TrEMBL record:
This is Glycogen debranching protein. It comes from Streptomyces globosus. The lineage of its organism: Bacteria, Bacillati, Actinomycetota, Actinomycetes, Kitasatosporales. Residues 25-200 form the Putative glycogen debranching enzyme N-terminal domain. Residues 296-323 are annotated as: Disordered. One of its GO terms (biological process) is carbohydrate metabolic process.
């Protein structure tokens, strides 16, 4: 009897944790640390998911330059330094310096500098090639062979039936050999002289990909701190988030944050909303554009999905089936709109989004299960974080309805109160150590007794008017117990919050939902703990995130290994993580804003400042933020006292 063939294994994403990545969405460049694009693996210049150039190998005087350093110098650019020893002088010292500056838009500037005491005649070659493969094919190991090149006026070109790429050089090469993919120059260098070659790779013979694809709605804010690492973290977070902005194809004036590079330069609804929410201190423009973009995708009609924002399934680790990101996005929509109003979203932009928020709430009401909880997906587990998102949507949605004189606010508050009572009865698992929240309820009502980082969402209640926070799902006693659990070594690995406690069955320090640190979840925990008065635990997680940020050059990946921190250790990268990633970049903004404790109510003309006691990072100043559409700056002293330095004239300190 023949046995069925085993299912084909899923292709493994190639590791990119050691790569130097430049991004200005939809432009992307992935380079090895030595800077030579070899044509192997993920190396290449990409535009809109198409690899325009896979090989760009520089040779000077017949030699490969010796790599000295490769580093990111900005979200959209990187620099690679190398040296060459031509042999013109005796001794081991190199006599040619090579600096390559590569931009996400496909531009590369090569600077050759002579350290020789005599004039040099220097042959320089650049070997080029491409397969014009889709990024997905490259990631799956299915990229084709290099295509034959043709000579272009000042370089080379390649084409297939549906794509083409052109690399031009300035100055034009002395020789261009299409059969070898070779550009060649003979350069004369006097002692101390530099010569520059610029390469430009584009999708056509005439156009150059613009470096900035959208108007950046994010304020150019700054952080100043006794701990200078906080300044670098904040600056890099803002730059990375801006580099991931993409146009909505339907309405090009609207931008949203792509999920991350290199794998997910596209719209991921839940993550786009999380990034927009966490970036509200930089202005409401990104939130408004993201909400408009997602409102256009909202399911219409009268079916069971009416009002839902579509989203793909997302893996949840070994203990639970995949969750629906559409559920998370639908619940986030009214909450983000409500909080954007508090930060100053103008009424002419907010009010047109109200019908979409109401449809999200209508879907929530219709999707609630017979047990009074929201399954994700249905039928399936009732996840603890899903109930937290639903609770926040109800309370902040009620806030929205009241603000616009729409009916339903009191009913949604009653709905939320009933959910709180059910949650405290069914989701809390009592124990001699004080108990814990269940990670989920199975469809038959059995609790899943896992402690996960998703529990941090139970402390993220949301912002109401007058600087008040919405009530949380947990009562004060259980919130204190959860704070102790999140702050204990089983969850706080020293580099951030584990996505699952270290002693739980199935724990994997590299597991994206079963142990690894996810920076945005850690930032949610920092903010929730700080707002709930658990400053010790909040401060420890904040310092751990900052230390991890330093270990990653202040560009936090979407996840990294949750190995326990020890003396002299460093955070370990996850080989398949996006870096930069929108929610990881926004996490730096959210965590530092939480430390400052900014709680605006622009419609009421007030702003409250409630910094994290003890000033765990020392004195902190945030400037260039936006509240009520105007510049906002505040300072937190070393004693943890907050003072507003700049604000809109109509804003009063209060709350």
């Amino acid at each position: 009897m023949a046995h069925p063939a085993p299912p084909a294994p899923r292709p493994e994403l190639p590791p990119v944790h050691g790569a130097v990545i430049c991004v200005s969405a939809p432009c992307l460049v992935i380079s090895p640390e030595h800077g030579q694009l070899t044509g192997h693996g993920m190396d290449g210049i990409y535009h809109s998911g198409r690899r325009l150039l896979s090989r760009c190998v520089l040779r000077v005087a017949g030699r490969d330059p010796v790599a000295v350093q490769g580093r990111s110098t900005g979200a959209d650019r990187a620099a690679f330094t190398a040296t060459v020893r031509t042999g013109a002088e005796a001794g081991p010292d190199p006599d040619i310096g090579v600096e390559r500056v590569r931009h996400a838009d496909g531009t590369e500037r090569i600077v050759l500098r002579s350290f020789n005491a005599r004039p040099l005649r220097l042959p320089v070659e650049v070997l080029l090639g491409t397969d014009l493969a889709d990024l997905a094919a490259v990631a799956a190991g299915r990229a084709g062979p290099e295509l034959p090149a043709g000579v272009h006026a000042a370089g080379l070109r390649w084409s297939t039936g549906d794509a083409q790429a052109v690399t031009t050089a300035d100055p034009a090469p002395d020789d261009a050999l299409a059969s070898a993919g070779l550009l060649r120059w003979q350069l004369e260098l006097q002692p101390g002289e530099s010569r520059t070659i610029e390469l430009r790779t584009t999708r056509s013979r005439t156009s150059r990909a613009p470096a900035g694809q959208v108007a950046n709605p994010l304020a150019d804010a700054r952080a100043e701190c006794d701990d200078p690492r906080a300044e670098a973290w904040f600056r890099t977070s803002v730059a990375d988030l801006g580099a991931l902005l993409l146009r909505d194809r339907e309405e090009p004036a609207d931008a949203f944050a792509a999920a991350g590079a290199p794998w997910r330069i596209g719209l991921a609804p839940a993550e786009a909303l999380w990034a927009a929410r966490m970036a509200l201190p930089l202005g409401t423009g990104l939130a408004a554009a993201t909400l408009r973009t997602l409102a256009r995708t909202q399911t219409g009609g009268r079916g069971p999905d009416a009002g839902k924002i579509p989203g793909p399934l997302r893996g949840a680790g070994p203990q639970l089936p995949p969750g629906c990101t559409g559920t998370e996005a639908t619940l986030a929509f009214p909450a983000v709109l409500a909080e954007a109003r508090r930060w100053g979203l103008p009424e002419p932009e907010a009010e047109p989004l109200l019908p979409a928020a109401e449809r999200c709430l209508d879907w929530l009401r219709s999707a609630l299960g017979g047990d009074g909880f929201l399954a994700d997906p249905d039928p399936g587990p009732r996840r603890c974080e899903t109930q937290a998102h639903a609770h926040r949507a109800a309370l902040l949605g009620a806030d929205l309805l009241d603000a616009y004189g729409r009916p339903g606010g009191p009913e949604w508050r009653e709905w939320a109160a009933a959910l709180r009572a059910r949650f405290r009865q069914r989701f809390w698992i009592d124990g001699p150590d004080g108990g814990r929240p269940a990670a989920a309820l199975h469809p038959d009502g059995r609790p899943l007794p896992r402690l996960t980082g998703a529990a941090a969402h139970l402390l993220d209640a949301g912002l109401l008017g007058g600087g008040r926070l919405a009530p949380g799902l947990l009562d004060p006693v259980r919130a204190e117990q959860l704070a102790r659990l999140l702050g204990a070594p089983a969850m706080d690995c020293g580099w951030g919050l584990r996505s699952m406690a270290v002693r739980e069955p199935g724990h994997n320090p590299f597991g994206h939902r079963s142990g690894a640190v996810r920076p945005h979840e850690s930032a949610v925990a920092v903010a929730g703990l700080a707002q709930s008065g658990f400053e010790k635990e909040a401060a420890a997680l904040l310092r751990g995130l900052l230390d991890a940020a330093e270990g990653f050059g202040y560009r936090l990946p979407e996840m990294y290994a949750a190995e326990q921190r020890t003396a002299g250790s460093a955070p370990l990268p996850h080989p398949a993580a996006c870096r930069p990633a929108a929610v990881a970049a926004a996490a730096g903004i959210h965590a530092l804003a939480a430390a400052a404790g900014i709680r605006p109510d622009a419609p009421a003309g007030t702003v409250a400042v409630s910094p994290l006691p003890g000033a765990p990072l020392g004195a902190l100043r945030l400037s260039g933020l936006r509240v009520a559409g105007e510049p906002f700056a505040l300072r937190v002293s070393r004693l943890g006292l907050g003072m507003v330095e700049e604000a809109a004239d109509a804003l009063q300190l209060g709350g």
